[in-house]
Amino acid sequence: MISPEWFLSQIMQWIREQHYFLTRFIQPIFDENKYWTKHSALILFLNKLIFLIKDKLEADIKKLSENSEHFLHTIDELLIFSNHLNSFLKTTENGVTTSNHQAYTCFHIICENQFIFSHWLNLEKQIWQKYLDEMFSNDYFSLFMNQNIENSLSKNFTGSCESLADNNLNYDILISTKCAECIVLLIKSIQDRYYNLPFPSKKICFANLQLDLLREFHLRLCQILRDEANNIFSKTYLGVLNTFIYVIKVLEDWKNSKFYIQLQFYRVKYAQFIEKHQFLKNFKSHNSLNSDNEINALFDQSLEVSKPFLDIEGTIFDDLLPSYEKVKNDIVKQIVHKCKWEFTSRANSYIHEKWMCMPLMSEINKQTLTDSASDMLISLRNMLHLLKDSITQDILNTIIKKLSSELDNFYFKDVILNNKFNEGGIQQLNFDVNKYLMPILNEFSINCNISCFFRLTNESINLLMLKKGSALLLNDLIEKAVDINPSLDLKLNLYNAKNALKELSIHHLTCEQSQKILSLRSDLFY
After folding, report:
1. Which run of H or of E encompasses 234?
2. pTM of the predicted model, to two decimals?
3. Tell me: the pLDDT tens digits for 454-467?
């Protein structure tokens, strides 16, 4: 069977040529006979021809197994032939009702011969592992370059039985990479090869191959992240982030498809079957090949009487997705940490500004940004601009939110609590934060209210800008609330202090923190 395409095309030609005669003249005879009325003449004829293929394959299998290239070529031709045959049967009058139940196909030949199936599966593992090795042996920079998703998908998935374009992925919010598209195409190609296998136990074997490759892919990406740990803003590092996001989105979409829900049902039932029939494993010590075949055959038979898989919880990718999500979140955390470090490392002069000696806004012609803040804000804007050009807007929004919270803590703890302020100083700080810092963050975010993440800073500024009389009264209320004198009604005083803070829209600062902030005003205690 060195050239199986000729042999199989001849079989297909016979089927097509005899289709009219069998359905027009023989089938009516079957229908009139009580014994044959439930049989299809076309299917019976087809099955006999398929047995010819089986006999030919079993006769040549020893020679084919010695040459991997010829063996895989034969398998490919058998798969193509089976797909063409299925398509042909669906176009016949009785194809929809009979072919799926009675037709014996090349898929049965491959699956029923354990040696052929095992050899095929092992070769598939070798091929896809080699493909993965070659993919990561290339230049990382080109591997993680951003791709045009629509164009690449239309090229890569043309002709696949269940293309990604048919699913409900929101491509508008994704940035693909060459690496991401390669692994998705790889997993999809494996699915297409075993999609029509008739036995659940065999499908499980290929599903496990897919999961193993996705785990290996995860490890390869983690190794690249370790190599690029000192260059977080590189195209490679950010490309790995895009790759994780893209693959996670695809797996999230696939896990809800009927095919993968059914696979999860098979895997759960198979695990239960093995556990229930533990004694079957004892056969492996005598003949591992036959025992595996017997176990799988018993499992496939048991599924024929199983209940529908609606009660199965979880999905086939549940073990993988958390590890992908964790790495994605770790990358986001590292990017936020790097952005904060680049910002705060330039803030030393800003922290030590003479906030007690600054002029009032009314005393200067035009208020401008504090000179010492220029470097750190320019650095922030450059980093966000680079990220906007490299990653998805959705993940950029997440980074900006987390970074805003970190900067809020920085301004609160390092700038405000470490300084004293006169009226001009607090006006200048308010101007720097609300007229420069937050507009920069808002520029690169979409549908995000950045001021919500600067609550500590904004509430502190509100207290520092409070009129002197109101500030003295508020400070008096807070002092009574935090006083530990047992003669005072502490609960009432605490209630009054908190109500007073709420009236001033102070919801996140505690009474102790508010007292500390008020103590930083030069007009109250100096």
Report:
1. none
2. 0.85
3. 999 999 999 999 99
Q: Which residues contact 53 (CB under 8 A, 6 or more apart)?
A: 7, 8, 11, 78, 106, 109
Question: How crowded is the C-beta side of 176, counted as CA atoms within 13 Å?
Answer: 20
Distance between start and end Cα atoms, the chain: 99
Write the pLDDT tens digit of every residue in 185-241: 999 999 999 998 989 999 999 999 999 999 999 999 999 999 999 999 999 999 999
Residue 170 burial by Cβ neighbours in a 10 Å radius (0-12, 13-18, 19+): exposed
User: Where do runs of H (alpha helix) occur along 113-254?
Assistant: 114-137, 140-143, 149-156, 178-194, 200-227, 235-254
CA-wise closest residue to 68 among 8, 143, 10, 119? 119
Cα–Cα distance measured from residue 187 to residue 209, given in angstroms and rounded to the nearest whole number: 9
Return the structure tokens found at 174. Answer: 């994704």
Alpha helices, DSSP H, located in 228-358: 235-254, 258-276, 288-303, 321-344, 348-351
Helices (H) and strands (E) in the chain, counts: 25, 2
Q: At what angle do helices 41-65 and 68-91 cross, to 10 degrees?
A: 170
Q: Map residue 506 onto helix, strand or coil.
A: coil
Chain centroid to Cα 220, Å, comes to 16
| Positive or negative: CA dihedral 170, 176, 182, 183 | negative
Tokens of 286: 């005598």
Residue 282: the pLDDT is 54
CA distances from residue 2 to 9, 122, 282 in whole angstroms, order as listed: 14, 20, 39
Residue 285 per-residue DSSP state: G
| Residue 200 CB-half CA count within 13 A | 24
Residue 511's φ and ψ, nearest 5 degrees, are -60, -40
Distances (CA, A) of 229 to 234, 246, 385: 10, 21, 20
**What 3-state class would DSSP assign to 421?**
strand
Q: Which amino acid is at 405?
A: S
Distances (CA, A) of 303 to 268, 273, 312, 503: 11, 10, 14, 67
Q: Determine the Cα–Cα distance for residues 447 and 187; give it in Å rounded to an integer.
A: 35
C-alpha atoms less than 13 angstroms from C-alpha of 274 in its C-beta half-sphere: 11
At 488 the three-state DSSP class reads coil
How many angstroms separate the CA atoms of 490 and 493, rounded?
A: 5
pLDDT, tens digit, 9 for 90 and up, residues 290-321: 566 777 888 887 776 565 555 677 889 999 99
Written as one letter, the residue type at 292 is D
CA dist 402 and 507 (Å) reads: 20
Residue type, 52: L
